[in-house]
Amino acid sequence: MKKKDKTFSLEPIAKVAKELQENPWKGPILMEKAPEAMTSVLALAKSPFFRFTPFGSRANPKEGAQRGALSSPHRNKWLVTGNRAGKTLSTLYEDLCDCLRLDPISKGPSDRFPADRPVEMWVVSDTEETSVDIIQKTLVHDLLGTDESGFMWNFVDDSSKYTEKSGFSENIVTFTNGSSIRFKYSTQKRKTFQGVSLSKVHIDEVQPIDICKEAFARVVDQNGYILGSMTPIYERNKGIPWIYEDLYLQREEKGIEFHNWTLLDNPFIDEAAKQRLLREWDEDEIDARVYGMFVPLGVKLALPTQVMRKVKSGCQPPSSLGDLTIGADGKVSYVTKGAA
Predict the structure, then answer these.
(1) pTM for the full predicted model
(2) Cα–chain-centroid distance for residue 169?
(3) Tens digit of each residue's pLDDT (9 = 90 or more) over 193-231
(4) Which of 212, 237, 299, 305 is most buried, with most CB under 10 Å away?
(5) Is residue 210 within 8 Å of residue 192, measured between CB atoms?
(6) Which pLDDT tens digit goes with each residue over 10-62?
(7) In this structure, are residues 286 and 105 in contact, taking their beta carbons and an 8 Å threshold?
(8) What structural domains does the chain harbor?
(9) Cβ-defined contacts of 86-90 (< 8 Å, 24+)
(10) Mean pLDDT of the chain
């Protein structure tokens, strides 16, 4: 097999491919002037990576959902969504763009990371099986392409071997520009997460707090990026995920950005299939699995969620009815408006 040319750059090809996507009439002109270059451009345009287009929310297809999350330059952002909402694919797409130094929206050149060092990142999941069967397989099937003679594999270093059964050799994929993604999993224990300086850490689904804190520390030296993606599933013995109290409730103080969207926003799932899933899930599952909300799941509620929503919408805040006051003795009392 011919060794790949490490000087071969994706950025200019991506720029032309994007231009042709927006102005297809230029294709015949460029083909006549530069047929060899256009062959590469057309090959890129057919790749699953280039065909991936992030979607917005139902309310605003140009903003929100995948598009809103991927357009954000924030250094610590979390995607909290329902099941089947496209969070895994969109986060891996951003990871791949970062390694190839491309903007995830325009697919043009990006200066998000310093040019004088390779982008080195971890993607952390719960087990090696999950990493191979979900994370690594999604990266290959939905972004690089399963045919290793395909265009995007020109940018994967020859040292990175992939099989469906075992994933990437030694759980790392290295690119021809020197950037890399190492696939980690929390069952490796905390000590294996120490002593490395990274450009970015991507936490897939809820991982143990000690693993996450150790992983977060890896990006401090480089003022790097943290990306999280999860559906907040309640566990009976553990409660609502720690991320709710430690990150979500303290998001303003800690400078963390949260992006939320739902299964219903995903335009690539047929409406009939969405309705079928809504019927299959129990009432107490819908808020978490469809809307990506931090709620108990698998615990029988006193009232159906829809009833509680209706009651909540009809409640008035106490401030509209009266005021809390603190007396000289330090006791708090509630005074109804209009009371003598």
Answers:
(1) 0.80
(2) 24
(3) 988 999 999 999 999 999 999 999 999 999 999 999 998
(4) 212
(5) no
(6) 767 777 777 777 777 877 777 777 777 677 777 777 889 988 999 999 988 98
(7) no
(8) 51-311 (3.40.50.300)
(9) 86/55, 86/266, 86/268, 87/229, 87/230, 87/231, 88/134, 88/135, 88/138, 88/204, 88/229, 89/52, 89/138, 89/142, 89/143, 90/54, 90/66, 90/229
(10) 85
Please give the structure tokens belonging to residue 187.
């069952």
